[in-house]
């Protein structure tokens, strides 16, 4: 008898085998593409749930580790690893029926709950609204190990690795600036406090977050109108899993406790009473009180730049040909320069191109691809534009002695959004009121005078060009690249 044609069963078997072989080799494939190390237990703190676990080596078989069972012994206690208002790194955080539980026999050592968690509702102005955001027993509780045993029974389902846990309403999430320069920014600033010596290469010992969990947001509500949020996520943490309100509700309805191995918990409302928040109105600001490397953001920025097809070194150095990028809003319809002032600015910048040999780009982001936007930002030495979302691109610049953001405001107007973010990256920010420039520490208080959002913002293009020369010649003498 000859060989019979393979049966469906045999074909399926081969498929299963091939998938198995592939999975075994996946870690290697990932390593080559992923600059942030794989989720190995970090040297800072070993995996709190499974200190004994060993990497799979092909010859051991085990039950999937889905459950942390304490049987008759004490319920493992929650540990606060790092905390500032609105940003908390917590090991063994429990959730049960939609409520967050901190299990501790030393409740006096736990920070005030309102600085960790809130009701996660929209932020409105006023004392009444502030009080309405404070958490109560139906949101978060501290319980003793004895109470935990009564409530949870003998174990909890494990959510392993690091979870970015977001307890914010949709209010600010659907906007590139708030997503990338506040949420993503604050998360990494808080989390990277566990590796406070990240070098300029951006290499870190921290495992990438496994998942991002939103307790108050539907899946379709996290993307922004400029469709940049997804580019930031997929380029910095390509295998991050995102979970939303319905996933949160699933677990709540199961009436079973779950335990997070480690969360980095973000809560905008909880961040608001912090001094740093009060000073700068930036939700990420309190996180800067934690330890951190001067190069903290490069772990993210370099991955985004590589994703855009460039080397992370792009934009570095102070002796290379500088790149000036003016992000024009003149076609946007809101917050625009006086047309003649815009034209004069463009002429003055073109002069710099001719006289000094700088590269000058006048761009309209909506007309560029997302990749082009990231590439140009990564190469840019001086980024300028009217106060607005386009300046979020500053996140991808390479901080050095001459990298600068110049922001145009209606005279008398000011907001910290891009000013604070620029400084938080170690770069220099200048605000412009027509021909007057100002920079930290001599900056005005936030103000939104009439005309702030209008289309008649005056600007002296000559003064802006003069500042560019000043930044690129006088302060560019030191080569720190
Ligand atoms: C950063 O890590 C990668 C591997 O992930 C390694 O090839 C590279 O040499 C490291 N860079 C530095 C400056 O340590
Ligand atoms: C695999 O791991 C098991 C348990 O840790 C160990 O006993 C065994 O020697 C290992 N096998 C190989 C091939 O490394």
Descriptive overview:
It is a single chain. With 481 residues, the chain is of the alpha/beta class. 30% of the residues lie in helices and 18% in strands. The protein is built from 13 helices and 15 strands. It has helices at 8-33, 127-133, 145-152, 176-191, 229-236, 245-253, 268-271, 275-280, 298-307, 339-356, 370-379, 417-424, 461-474, and strands spanning 67-69, 79-84, 87-96, 99-103, 140-143, 155-166, 211-214, 241-243, 258-266, 323-327, 359-363, 382-386, 404-408, 428-433, 436-438. The strands form two sheets. Strands 1, 2, 3, 4, 5, 6, 7, 8 and 9 form a nine-stranded mixed β-sheet that branches. Helix 5 links the parallel strand 7 (211-214) and strand 8. Helix 5 (229-236) crosses helix 9 (298-307) and helix 10 runs parallel beside helix 13 (461-474). The longest helix has 26 residues, at 8-33. The chain is globular, with a radius of gyration of 25 Å. One 2-acetamido-2-deoxy-beta-D-glucopyranose (NAG) binds next to loops. Residues 35, 201, 203 line the site of one 2-acetamido-2-deoxy-beta-D-glucopyranose. Keywords: Glycoprotein, Glycosyltransferase, Membrane, Transferase, Transmembrane, Transmembrane helix. Residues 222-402 form the Glycosyltransferase 61 catalytic domain. It comes from Mycena alexandri.
Please outline what is shown here.
The protein is an alpha/beta fold and 481 residues long.
End-to-end distance: 73 Å
Q: Structural class, please?
A: alpha/beta
Low-confidence stretches: 23-46
C-alpha geometry:
globular
Bound ligands, each once: 2-acetamido-2-deoxy-beta-D-glucopyranose
Helix proportion range: 25-40%
What series of H and E elements makes up the topology? HEEEEHEHEHEHEHEHHHEHEHEEHEEH
Strand content: 15-25%
Number-wise, the strands total 15
């Amino acid at each position: 008898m000859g060989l019979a044609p393979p049966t469906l069963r045999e074909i399926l078997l081969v498929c299963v085998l091939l998938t198995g072989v592939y999975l075994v080799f996946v870690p290697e494939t990932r390593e080559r593409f992923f600059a942030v190390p794989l989720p190995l237990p970090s040297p800072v703190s070993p995996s709190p749930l499974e200190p004994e676990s060993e990497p799979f080596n092909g010859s051991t078989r085990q039950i999937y580790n889905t459950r942390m069972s304490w049987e008759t012994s004490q319920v493992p206690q929650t540990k606060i690893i790092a905390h500032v208002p609105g940003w908390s790194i917590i090991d063994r955080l429990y959730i049960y029926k939609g409520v967050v539980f901190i299990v501790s026999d030393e409740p006096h050592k736990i920070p005030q709950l309102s600085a960790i968690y809130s009701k996660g509702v929209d932020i409105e102005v006023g004392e009444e609204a502030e009080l309405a955001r404070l958490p109560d027993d139906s949101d978060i509780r501290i319980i003793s190990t004895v109470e935990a045993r009564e409530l949870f029974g003998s174990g909890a389902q494990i959510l392993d690795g690091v979870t970015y846990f977001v307890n914010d309403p949709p209010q600010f999430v659907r906007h590139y600036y708030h997503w990338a320069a506040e949420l993503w920014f604050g998360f990494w600033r808080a989390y990277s406090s566990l590796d406070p010596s990240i070098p300029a290469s951006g290499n870190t010992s921290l495992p990438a977050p496994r998942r991002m969990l939103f307790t108050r947001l539907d899946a379709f509500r996290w993307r922004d109108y400029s469709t940049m949020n997804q580019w930031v996520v997929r380029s910095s943490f390509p295998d991050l899993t995102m979970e939303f309100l319905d996933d949160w509700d699933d677990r709540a309805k199961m009436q079973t406790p779950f335990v997070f191995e480690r969360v980095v918990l973000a809560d905008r409302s909880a961040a608001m009473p912090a001094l740093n928040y009060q000073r700068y109105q930036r939700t990420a600001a309190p996180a800067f009180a934690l330890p951190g490397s001067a190069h903290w953001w490069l772990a993210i920025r370099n991955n985004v730049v590589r994703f855009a097809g460039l080397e992370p070194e792009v934009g570095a150095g102070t002796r290379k040909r500088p790149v000036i990028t003016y992000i024009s809003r003149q076609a946007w319809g809101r917050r625009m320069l006086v047309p003649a002032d815009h034209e004069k600015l463009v002429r003055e910048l073109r002069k710099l191109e001719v006289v000094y040999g700088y590269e000058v780009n006048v761009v309209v982001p909506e007309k560029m691809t997302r990749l082009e936007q990231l590439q140009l930002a990564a190469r840019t030495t001086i980024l300028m534009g009217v106060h607005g979302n386009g300046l979020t691109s500053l996140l991808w610049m390479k901080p050095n002695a001459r990298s600068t953001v110049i922001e145009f405001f209606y005279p008398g107007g000011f907001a910290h959004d891009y000013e604070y973010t620029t400084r938080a990256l170690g770069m220099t920010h200048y605000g412009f009121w027509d021909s007057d420039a100002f920079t930290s520490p001599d900056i005005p208080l936030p103000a939104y005078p009439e005309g702030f959002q209008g289309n008649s913002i005056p600007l002296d293009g000559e003064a802006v060009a003069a500042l560019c020369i000043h930044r690129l010649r006088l302060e560019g003498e030191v080569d720190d690249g």
